[in-house]
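Hey, resending since the last one bounced:
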Amino acid sequence: MIRKLSSTDFQTLYAIINDASVAYKGKIPSDCYKEPYMPLEELRAEIESGVQFYGITQNGELAAVMGIQPVGDVTLIRHAYTLTRFQRKGLGEKLLNYLLSLAQTERVLVGTWEAATWAIGFYQKHGFVLLSREETNKLLHKYWNIPERQVETSVVLEQKRRRQ
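The structure tokens again:
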């Protein structure tokens, strides 16, 4: 079951993000990886900036989360994480398709680490196109609020959709 997360899910959301983010350890630049990967204050700031999280349950347990954030003329897919023990079971695909059905813009963007080849492949499998370095830098500066080092080591993928 997919549902919109609420403030009562905050601690579980935090735990899922930090469980799943171990996949980045040793892959992304070491100066970009920290533990916890997303501190409580950072997660609160993301929610306050307009990221709305949705989650999917497996066997009655919240197992995967993904955020959506309308920003101007685009929709961003943000913070997609699945608990390690539930990965590779199609939960991310279900969440992504659900969030794409909610998107009200023609362009949907997702940013991820350049070294997260598994994530890039996942989005490409679902119709996203990897953008050039020049376009990536432009979009990361326009729609995201991330450190310059993260801009340097990230990519943006885009899915263009028909107007609703």
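The helical segments are 10-20, 40-48, 91-102, 117-125, 133-143, 148-152.

Sorry for the duplicate.
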